[in-house]
Prior knowledge:
By secondary structure, the protein is an alpha/beta fold. The chain is built from 13 helices and 21 strands. Helix 7 runs parallel beside helix 9 and helix 8 (197-209) runs antiparallel to helix 9 (224-241).
Amino acid sequence: MGEKIFIIGLDCAPPELVFDQFDLPNLQGLMDGAHGELTSTIPPITCPAWMSMVTGKNPGKLGFYGFRNRKNFSYTDMWIANSTAVKTDTLWDTLSREQKRVSVIGVPQTYPPKPVNGIMVTSFLTPDIEHQYTYPDSLKAEIKSLVGEYILDVEEFRTEDKPYLLSQIYEMTEKRCKVVKHFLREKWDFFMWVEMGPDRIHHGLWKYFDPTHRKYVESEFASAIPDYYTYLDDRIGEMLSSLDEDTIVMVVSDHGAKRMEGCININDWLVQEGYLHLKEHPPQITKLKEVQIDWKKTAVWAWGGYYSRIFFNIQGREPEGILTRDEYLDVREEIKKKLESMTDDRGNALGTKVFRPEDVYSGPYVREAPDLIVYFGDLYWRGTESIGHESLYSFETEIGPDDCVHAQEGIFIMNDPQERVTGKQHGLNILDCAPTVLDLLGMPLDQDMDGRSIISR
């Protein structure tokens, strides 16, 4: 019998909770093999992190730097990175070609589903279950007969209705686990499942869990996050009990989680510093795309999110570019230094990290990367792109209640019956996962992969 690999993906699962703080007998039992922190992509966002994990390639080779991406250096046009944006082989592409049987459930950026040698159920980026979210098509009816209406994602995780949010998360996870257990009974060589529940419960309920949170509230929801992990660990235990004893099990996350301190209103700062010029200042907080920007005078603007993307208005690249190449390089260094020296609302150093794309990416799509990638307060603060705030700092997001941000380190656990790697691992990178899987299955590695197999290092 050939090697079989079962990968459990827990979106947003942080090492400090899974490895140390919570009592999770099934997950921690797997740690008797190998485990360690898994450094995510820059940025540590669901997209591109999961695709970097399953291709072994950095975003500069994938061509996307978040869910939304600039289109042809336009000021306003953008595109959403779904499966059609993935131009390189994923693990399931490679394994399908080699006649390995694959099962892929809930992995981000798999919608619309592509043909595989096996089955695929797409992820939360699917518009709804009325769209085709399975391969083959017939799988949709099979899932409906199994769990009724399948839930791709919670309806709205940025809500103040916490009981409703919790009920949605549990229902979603329960149905997905039921589907996973069902297909585990079928023939497969490679099985990968990603659960979004940890991400949704962190963003929705972290302030009740973390006493260091700026908005910490003592409430009945204090145990919501640990209770959910206990529940999830039980479900994982049920899956593990159904596996052959020679199956390799990996548990991974795309990034970690930590409290959100607040938001930096980056475009208001750029206006204040004279880099971004408006035709008229909005009388109230206004979305960036609705603000009248004077592009003929604007040198720099930004997008917000868990990290901020800074764009420069360059001659010959943007429609109304004003900066020469030399001016761009000078202004970029000037802004980088200013952002790195920024303080928080209490006057303390933020510790902001600013990355140049050429320093952190390689590949044919580096030119399409943001001109600067900004981690405000080392990701404790998110960036806000709307304009019209009274202060540089705000404490409500543009998109509704949100308690946590992403951390650079996720989790890696591998339990290999042959014990090719054991003990605490250091220096693991998300790019190492794909070559490790191929190595374990005795498959040749794509020489264009950026990661390296952890069993061969």
